[in-house]
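Changelog-adjacent note: as of this version, every example in the card shows the full chain rather than a window. The one below runs 230 residues end to end.
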Amino acid sequence: MPDCNLDMCAQDIVNSFTGCSGQRCMAASVLLLVGKQDKLLQAVIDRASKLVPGSRDREIGPVIDQESLDRITRYIAEAEKNGSKVLLDGRSWSKREGGGWWIGPTILHHASPNDAAMRDEIFGPVLSVFECKDQNEAVKIENSTPYGNAACIYTESGYWAEWFTKRFGAGMLGVNIGVPVPREPFSFGGKKASKFGDHDITGDGALELFTQRRKITTKWAPPLEQSWMS
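Full-length structure tokens:
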């Protein structure tokens, strides 16, 4: 939202979409801007562009294999072909010496929310950005995705935080949190195509996987006090 804490929001977004080279289920993949927010977008670009390849703290490692690298670069090339603007291009990292399958942080500015990179799980350090006209369009796009692992709202307004968390279609939600993994004993798990089997995988939700509930109803004598349940 336009009232977000710009520095915190920008850094959280970068940490989320580049962490583990984007190869994690909780990595940010789509940034929906409600209204025009050039300062926030530029802050995200500036922070992401400072990251370098490597295996130390604040560096980004390679993706897992050639197939993964090919898939990621194919999504970028397709988005560019369809009119998306490449605001930060990490494909130059592939020319890095020393072996490995490298791609740097990449930020795409889309003209359509229906672009493949906006809807598919790329599993790489790629952030798709779309500018929404209002909050209704933003939540409509979020609800329309076939996946439902996580969604976050950045705002300093309790009203908007509640408005979005009531309407998001994902299973794990965050307010000013870039990676909204719930604390134990709460369950970890998404919705829709991001659902792990029939149940969540941690917390009390995971117990359901190993539990067969028995329901017992008893009455030993006519009740002394009558109610609608009698």
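Structural remarks: Residues 181-211 form one domain.
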